Every structure is written in C-alpha cells, then in structure tokens.
C-alpha cells in the first residue's frame, strides 16, 4: 500500500510540474494571439480591448492559478481560435485518437508477442534471420514516409481506402475502423519491430537458464516450459517496454493524424500551436502528459502484482 501511495503522489506531482512548465513555456514564446485574430492592421485600442476580454492583460501567475483551478474543476476555458469551450473540442476529437491508439496497441500485441517468441524458439535459423531483417527495415523507415507510402500503395493504387475520406464512427463504425486500420498499422509496425527484438532477446536469455534445463530434463514439454516458466520471468521487462510504447503511441500519433487527415487530438494540437491558442494548447499538452504518466503508473502497479519484490525496492 505504501508503494502504491508513493506512485499516486508521484503521478500528481508530475502532472503539477508539467502544468507549470507548459503554461510558462507557451506564454513566453513569441507571438500574440490577439494580432493573429485581428490582423496586423488593427488599432492598439481594439487590440487592448480583445486582450482584456481574453484575460491576457493579467499577470501570468494569476492566469496560471485560474487555469489550474479550472483544470481541477473540469472547466478548461474557451478556445481563442474556435471560440468554443476547450472541453467540447477535445471531447469531439478524443474518440478518433483513442480508437487509433487502441487499434495500434491491439496490432502490436497480437503480432509482436507470438513473433518474438517464435523467433526465440527458432533462433539463428533462416526464418529468424528473415524476421530480424524485416524488423530492422521497419525501424529504419520514418513514420511519416511509411504513412505517405501506405497512402500511395493502399489508397491511390490498390483503392483499399480513399485518402482524406474519413468516416465518422457515428455514421459507419465498420468504415471508421477500416479507415483507421492503415494509420494504426503505420504506428504499430516500428513498435512491433522493437517489441519483437526485445522479447526475442528476453526469451532466449531465459531459455539458457538453469531452471529451464532442469525442466527439460524432467520431461516437461517445450510449450509448457515457454508458457509456464519462460514467459513468467521474461514478462516484467517486456511489460515495461510495452508501457513505454503505449505512452509513446498516445503522445506520438500527431504526425500520423496529420498525414492521414484524421480529426484527432494531434491535428487539433498542431492547429492550436500555429494560432497561439493558449487555453487549448495547454490543456492538450497536459492531457497527453496525463496519458503518459497514467500508463506508466499502471505499468508499475502491474509489475508490482507480478513481482512482489518491487515493493521492497
């Protein structure tokens, strides 16, 4: 319980520090949202009036406290660019981003884990070398280029989907998942390569351990050794890596959303940064930070459940 309490305190402290850094950074960068709204030809009087309406004329510490209290109460303020509540803008884009991330995570788990175990069992054989080469190729290709390649091959040439023709989940759920499949694959492939290589190494290390040789000498089947002994000991570091991958997916899908024209959190963040939409930017960054920190928290809790020795550390 003490370990869990410490992790919860760390979670909230991290989010608090992120909120301070985010608010300070975006309020110190060059650019005036008032000028972006009114244009450079506006009069100083009109600019001062709008600045007062937006609350930008107040001291930064005062604005931070007001914004932080709003976050705690679920009131994120209004977007400068869209003139709409930030909460409604995020709620409208959140299903797309979460669905994309969950689909990518699903693909990573169902592909990487069996392939990693298979490569370990067939280590140094031809199929292992081929799969390792494919993994290295996946790691070498940038996500942006892979996304453009998928659009050209599967969208423009094979006509599996229509680029830019996004289908809302409320209109056609099957079409929605079908359109998300390709950007989810683009996100998943490099992470599959990472997890395959890591899991392969972890399983090989366990297969050479004394307890595995003892199990084989007692006539335990290969499948039982893998499922009951090897995976149990290889799992903790793999879960840690998978947690990092999941956090990276939620925070790193911005470029892919832009490439595939997905109306998600990533595209909303890019448009808000270019417009200096401080209330929206700050809330989105804290949201992404919350996902990353919360996933790491869940990983710690899961590792504690699997390996009680972590509590002592």
From TrEMBL:
Q: What is its main location?
A: membrane
Q: Which residues form the ABC transmembrane type-1 domain?
A: 94-299
**CDD domains (UniProt xref):** TM_PBP2
Q: Which SUPFAM superfamilies match?
A: MetI-like
Q: Where in the cell is it found?
A: Cell membrane
Gene3D superfamilies membership: MetI-like (1.10.3720.10)
Q: Which domain of life is it from?
A: Bacteria
Where would one find the signal peptide in this protein? none
UniProt feature coiled coil, ranges: none
GO biological process annotation, one example: transmembrane transport
What's in the keyword line of the UniProt record? Cell membrane, Membrane, Transmembrane, Transmembrane helix, Transport
Its family remark reads: Belongs to the binding-protein-dependent transport system permease family.
| Protein name per the record | ABC transporter permease
